[in-house]
Amino acid sequence: MVLALAVLLGGVVVPSASLVQALTYPGEASTTVRLVEWAREHGGGGIVDLVENWWYARPPVVASLAPADLPAPPTAVATGSPPVLAPLVPALPGEGQWVAGASSSLGEPAIYTTFERPDARHRGVVVGVALLESRAIVTHLIAGTRQPLPQTRADDARVPDALQSSLVATFNSGFKMQDAHGGFYADGHVAVPLRDGAASLVVRRDGSATVGQWGQDAVAGPDVVAVRQNLDLVVDNGRPAPGLDGNTSQSWGTAKNQLQYTWRSGIGIDASGNLVYVAGDGMNLVTLAAALLQAGAVRGMQLDIHSEMVDFFSYRHGAGSDAPVATKLLPTMPGRSDRYLVPDQRDFVAVTLR
Predict the structure, then answer these.
(1) What distance lies between CA 213 and its chain's CA centroid?
(2) How do residues 257-267 score in pLDDT, each as one tens digit?
(3) Bridge partners of 283?
(4) Residue 338: which of 161, 158, 172 has the closest Cα?
(5) Which helix (H) or strand (E) is 324 found in, with range?
(6) Which of 61, 101, 144, 224 could be a cystine partner for 346, CB 3.0 to 4.6 Å?
(7) Strand pairing of 199-204 and 127-132?
(8) Which residues have CB under 8 Å from 189's CB, separation 6+?
(9) Measured between alpha carbons, how far is 338 from 324 in angstroms, rounded to an integer?
(10) Rounded to an integer, what distance in angstroms lies between the CA atom of residue 263 and that of residue 279?
(11) Measured between alpha carbons, how far apart are the two ends of the chain, in Å?
(12) CA 126 to CA 62: how far, in whole Å?
């Protein structure tokens, strides 16, 4: 509630019909998120940015990590699992070791998860990693009740019932469209115009997906069924994008946003064409790029940031039941485990078995 209180004390929030609408609008979102986003939309963005830059300026200090804060290590090495990610020394139990998730009809895992520590200076920063096998999955971009536009019916802003029996994972999308410096295309409709040069998650007609620079790594055509853009690439050609620490052109958000030590998430593509998702607390933008690279991404983009915006769930299905049972990528992720199974205000990505 820190940001919400700061906005209130700053005199931004005044009684109005628009505030009441923001607090009651359909779709999952906490009161804090509703207040802060309303403030941004009504002239308070500068105050919110100042408070966030101050609040998240302190580097993370973690004396020790509790076992309950880490994903459980694998009980066995799955056949065909990716190479172990290089851990810090001394390694934590399970660090960099992949755990196989839901499998295709051929018995091949569609998802592997692990965790890494990409910041040797701040060794308590733990980042969850998910690798989604392109040959085994179908990717879906789903609009929320307010993002990309406030026109989606509440019941459409969740994982459809027809997909839940084959659900592999769901995860957050990018910034709100007004802050994303990019566009949104899905279901044959351009909700927000696409920007040449923007970092883009692109879904093809066969359900496969890629990440790249729009206009260079991917272009419009009959094979493209969905595009979600967010800022500029943070990883390209297997290297961090130049200027991440300075952000002088505000290619990665508002001024000093790149310096915040906060929850961040990103999506990338590896050399084999698999999707790689990373997320964790206490990261600045440079650390996020390092996390994507350590996880094997050759191109990557930042998705959403801050604690209530970052969520990744993998799913299993109990015997005789189509109902998906969610597991958080990191136990410390604050979101509700039924997020995206119920209507949400923000757009998101769902992944199902091919």
Answers:
(1) 18
(2) 999 999 999 99
(3) 262
(4) 158
(5) strand 324-328
(6) 144
(7) unpaired
(8) none
(9) 9
(10) 7
(11) 41
(12) 10
Where do the domains of the chain lie?
1-55, 64-354
| Half-sphere exposure for 335 (CA within 13 Å, toward CB) | 30
Q: What is the pLDDT of residue 104?
A: 87
DSSP H or E stretch at residue 325: strand 324-328
**Is the peptide bond between 90 and the residue preceding it cis, with omega within 30 degrees of 0?**
yes
Q: Find the length of the chain.
A: 354
Interatomic CA distance for residues 343 and 354, integer angstroms: 24
Cα 287 → chain centroid: 15
Query: What are the distances in angstroms from CA 169 to CA 69, 130, 132, 229, 260?
Result: 20, 9, 9, 20, 28
- pLDDT tens figures, 321-341: 778 999 999 999 998 999 999
Q: Which residue has the tokens 């757009």?
A: 347
Strand partners, 325: 316
What is the C-alpha separation between 102 and 113, in angstroms, rounded?
11
- For β-strands 137-142 and 127-132, DSSP reports them as unpaired
In 117-261, beta strands by DSSP E:
127-132, 137-142, 167-172, 184-186, 189-192, 199-204, 209-213, 224-229, 233-236, 239-240
